[in-house]
Design a protein that fits this description.
The complex is a heterodimer of chains A (394) and B (310). With 394 residues, chain A is mainly α. Chain A contains 17 helices and no strands. Chain A folds into two domains: 11-155, no CATH class; 178-392, MetI-like fold. The two termini of chain A are 36 Å apart. Helices cover 74% and strands 5% of the residues of chain B. Chain B contains 14 helices and four strands. Chain B has one domain (57-309): MetI-like (MetI-like fold, Orthogonal Bundle). Classes of the chains: A mainly alpha (394), B mainly alpha (310).
Chain lengths: 394, 310
């Protein structure tokens, strides 16, 4: 990659630099401008006079605030872009001639990566922006700048409507309490309850089972383990019909138990935990037994704390699985009972009623996306390692 | 000793029994129950207990059901599009990230994030992006072109030719970060000395990529191929969210959905009350899955035997 031109100016290289610089300026201006405006928009939406109180006020005051704030955000974006441009140009001039090719390669890499992130995360940014747009205005785009997707008149009306705490729904509440219960607050709690209970039970049973497969004696242990692994080859769709019949015959159709009971036996969990527990030295267990620990105490005091990172990983992955387990939850949901509707099923139902109300559908989507994104932010190491672990073992 | 080992066995059974109980009831029993159910038809009344016995009719029906074979073909096309594109996209991201970069972990997390988000919700968001008249894509194309453009009038999901590729595009973007992490880990395990040796032999960047990087990444590519096949055979939520199997096309006098993959067809049969037929279809899908897995393992075994032979 080292240039043959030595210290001389290469017109090709200067041309490439100018093209990359132009790309840098536009990316930086659009991305930083939109992010600044988004941050201000969210704060405005919550702080503005139509923010917290329930009811439809007059013209939204948030528009006036935003009108004053938008030039500030634009100014900030311009200052940031100019600063970045000056820095890059100085950097480039300061680079030795033979290292300039590497410099340009780095610059290209960063720009490609930022564009990649923008493409991959755009749907979710658009979701957040649209959920703050007032009804009827989702369709209007900024004619002078089509890249400006952050609303200039943010409102919380969409969120209030999907939570059914807006004036119209509250007035209806006494007449039809069941319909009132069908809101995304209820669905969110249902999903949270189902996913947490399932994740807790799965990790408990799987870690007890994995302990036996890893450390204990049992006749036909290897054969049983092979049988478990063999069932992993069966596609999940296979179980839909028989499990549905079993749940119905047990009389659990439309209950929260039905949402996760058939998926409690996690072979993947046993496999993942056994792999880890095999690395725990047996001498630790023997030492605890000599100290007079009972079988349960050995498991609870030695195994669980040592395997805790992997148990936490399994907990988070199982939580995620049940948070998104759409097909199964759809077929066992009793739509008359709002307490059995989980988030994905609720969204599918809601979308059928409000096909073109973009703002409402997007604010409903936020209830599923935002909590998981925040959880991912704090526990990404566990998610990434847990999800990719099976492949690395290959 | 005998007393100790029988006590040990009792403890083991105690620890294992909650899991094995659930495993037996909800994973082993259904395999046989499903086979039993596949000899029955639709319910004769509004309860599930009175199914009509039809014998082998469901299996006979599968072989003459054009819609089922069509759905298998759609599944194959879906897999043939998703798997190579998914591998290419994740490899491209991994190659970009496999450099000394500031903020590498930020990019890694940002690309991985869509993987953990709910498939149905992501599908709904993409449906709205593709939607004609009010979708994001329609708004952008209207700004650039006239109002009378394809994205604004029909929308990508409205035409039988573009609906499946549009679903594939959304799913590749959602899943790219997963393969990227796998490739990145493998790339970092390739010793730099191998590339330096190739430099001495005067290899070009392209030759180094094809003759060193790709062969060393083969285990990951094979893994992504296998999971991709299983993913295509299990595909349901993305189709339910984005196209509902449509748009409909007429082929040889039969109306079929242009994105109706096998998983979606199975759900449709289930939803319309053909429980026995749905069970028979799921048996068929099981046989196909096992067949493909067996074939892949045979191929992998033969390949590695050849390499040893060299």
């Amino acid at each position: 990659m080292i240039s043959q031109h030595g210290g001389k100016m290469s017109p090709v290289r200067v041309f490439i630099f100018i093209v990359l610089l132009a790309a840098l300026i536009s990316i930086s201006y659009v991305v930083s401008g939109q992010l600044f405006k988004f941050g201000g928009m969210v704060i405005t939406a919550f702080a503005a006079s139509d923010g917290m109180p329930v009811g439809d006020g007059a013209a939204p005051a948030s528009a006036d605030v935003m009108l004053k704030l938008v030039p500030v955000f634009n100014g900030l974006a311009i200052i940031l872009t100019i600063a970045l441009t000056i820095l890059t140009v100085r950097w480039y001039i300061g680079t030795k001639a033979e290292e300039r090719a590497t410099f340009l390669k780095k610059m290209f890499l960063y720009e490609a990566l930022v564009i990649g992130v923008v493409v991959v995360l755009f749907p979710f940014f658009w979701m957040l922006c649209t959920s703050f747009k007032p009804s009827g205005q989702e369709l209007i785009i900024n004619k002078s700048n089509p890249f400006d997707i952050v609303p200039s008149e943010p409102t919380l009306q969409n969120f209030k409507k999907v939570l059914k705490i807006d004036a119209a729904s509250v007035a209806m509440a006494s007449e039809d309490p069941i319909e009132q219960k069908k809101n995304f607050g209820t669905y969110f709690l249902n999903s949270l309850l189902v996913a947490t209970t399932a994740a807790f039970l799965v990790t408990l049973f799987a870690s007890m089972g994995a302990y036996v497969f890893s450390k204990k004696e049992l006749p036909y242990k290897q054969q049983i383990f092979m049988l478990l692994l063999a069932t992993m080859m069966i596609p999940g769709m296979m179980f839909m019909v028989p499990q549905f019949f079993m749940i119905c015959q047990m009389g659990m159709f439309g209950t929260k138990w039905a949402m996760f009971l058939p998926h409690l036996a996690s072979v993947f969990g046993i496999f993942m935990l056994k792999q880890f527990m095999d690395t725990i030295p047996n001498s630790l267990l023997e030492a605890a037994q000599i100290d007079g620990a009972s079988e349960w105490q050995v498991f609870r005091v030695v195994i669980v704390p040592l395997a805790f990172p992997i148990i936490l990983t399994l907990f988070l992955l199982t939580f995620l699985f049940h948070w998104s387990n759409f097909l199964w939850q759809l077929i066992v949901t009793n739509f008359e009972n709002p307490l059995s509707i989980t988030l994905p099923v609720g969204l599918a139902l809601f979308r059928g009623q409000y096909t073109s109300e973009l703002g409402l559908i997007m604010s409903a989507s936020c209830f599923s996306i935002v909590p998981i994104a925040v959880l991912f932010l704090f526990a990404q190491r566990y998610f990434i390692e847990g999800m990719t672990q099976g492949a690395v073992k290959e | 000793m005998a007393i100790k080992s029988s006590k040990e066995t009792a403890v083991s059974v105690g620890f294992l029994s909650p899991f094995m109980l659930l495993f037996g009831i909800f994973l082993i029993f259904p395999i046989f129950y499903s086979f039993y159910l596949s000899f029955f038809g639709s319910p004769t009344d509004y309860s599930l207990s009175n199914l009509e016995f039809v014998g082998l009719d469901n299996y006979v029906r599968i072989f003459t059901d054009f819609q089922f074979w069509w759905s298998l073909m759609v599944t194959a096309v879906y897999g043939l599009l998703t798997i190579p594109l998914g591998i290419a996209a994740s490899l491209a991201l991994a190659l970009l990230l496999d450099n000394k970069l500031f903020g590498k972990s930020f990019f890694r997390s940002a690309f991985f994030l869509p993987n953990v988000l709910d498939m149905l919700v992501v599908g709904v968001i993409w449906t709205l992006i593709y939607a004609p008249k009010f979708g994001a894509l329609a708004q952008l194309t209207t700004f650039i072109m006239s109002e009378d453009n394809f994205f604004n009038t029909t929308g990508l999901l409205g035409s039988p030719y573009t609906a499946l590729p549009a679903v594939v595009f959304a799913m590749v973007l959602k899943g790219a970060g997963f393969g990227m992490v796998l490739f990145l880990a493998a790339l970092q395990n390739i010793p730099q000395a191998v590339y330096e040796a190739a430099d001495i032999d005067g290899a070009s960047e392209w030759q180094k990529f094809w003759n060193i990087t790709v062969p060393l990444l083969k285990p990951i590519i094979v893994f992504m191929g296998i999971t991709g096949v299983i993913g295509a055979l299990n595909a349901f939520t993305e189709i339910y969210a984005m196209t509902s199997g449509g748009p409909q096309v007429v082929i040889g006098g039969e109306t079929v959905g242009s994105t109706s993959v096998a998983g979606y067809y199975l759900y449709k049969q289930f939803e319309s009350g053909n429980y026995g037929y749905a069970a028979a279809i799921s048996y068929m899908l099981l046989i196909i899955t096992l067949g493909i897995t067996w074939l892949q393992q045979r191929l992998a075994a033969r390949k590695s035997a050849q390499e040893v032979g060299k």
